[in-house]
Amino acid sequence: MLGSGGHAERAHTPTSKRRKYEMPWQIIERCSVTKAGRAAENEDGGSEDSVVFVGRHCFAVLDGHSNVRTKIRGKSHGRIAVEIGLDFFRTFEDFDNPYKLVRDLTEHVRRSFSRHDIAHEQRSGFVFAAFLPEASLIVRVGDCQYVIDGQLNEAMNRGLMVDRVKAEYRRQIILAELKEGSADTELKVRTMEAELLARKHDIAKRQMSSMKAWQHSYRNVVNPPFGYGVIDGTEVPVALIECIPVPHDAKLIVLTSDGYPPQVIRQTFDETEHAFFELLKRDPLCYKEWVAVRGVPPGRSRPDDCTYVSIERVP
What we know:
Structural class: alpha+beta
Strand order of the largest sheet: 2-3-6-7-9
CATH class: Alpha Beta
Strand content: 15-25%
Shape: globular
CATH topology: Phosphatase 2c, domain 1
Distance between the termini: 24 Å
CATH architecture: 4-Layer Sandwich
Number of helices: 7
Number of strands: 11
């Protein structure tokens, strides 16, 4: 969460007594920012659809995705999915077994969706990345991001192939629009970019919406390179559960939602936000330095919610 002045709030992790294990890690920063640029005020430190979980044996970022625009009791389907996930994390104990974690989490979500009477075709879900200190692992399903000791593994944080295909399609639409408008000088390009940004809807909104069914057909399907994992109540194949070893001498781990482009993630929240806004000043349409599925909408500060948590080894 953010404290006064917009700085991230420092919090310490409770000590676990299970197996007489003393948690050698503590939270340094946990923060979420909405698309409008407001610091989230939820008790879990989350924005509308992405949250941070801090427990005795696990630190995690959960990022919800909604299949439909309708809401239930004022909440998006993605938010409901994330809250169901948080309920599970608060009571689960076997964090040294990442595959059991994903299996039991999936079953919990399936049962909870049934209780909410959410039809299968409307079911949304969430992705997550979790640091499990006792197992010395980061377990990930989907496209949340991680950085260990300031070293970003770009090959492991490139996002989902389905999103990269959509983002490149959108980039080509923008380039075609600029070419049609004879934007052959830097001034003309900037003028047209500003015009495109001022539109009520993103230039590629219709095309991106039409690709949803295509994207969803690869959820929890082992079909390289497009298949990807998501917690939505259906089985997550083992091949889509990533287990990343954490070096025994690691000192700082950062987990984020995919609202941040990987190249801006830094070892502090303020540095990450600064790098992000510098990038968005140069590329507000998000088609050059960061090829994304949408740009910065009118009245917003960023294309998506952003969630960030940093965990430091206790000396």
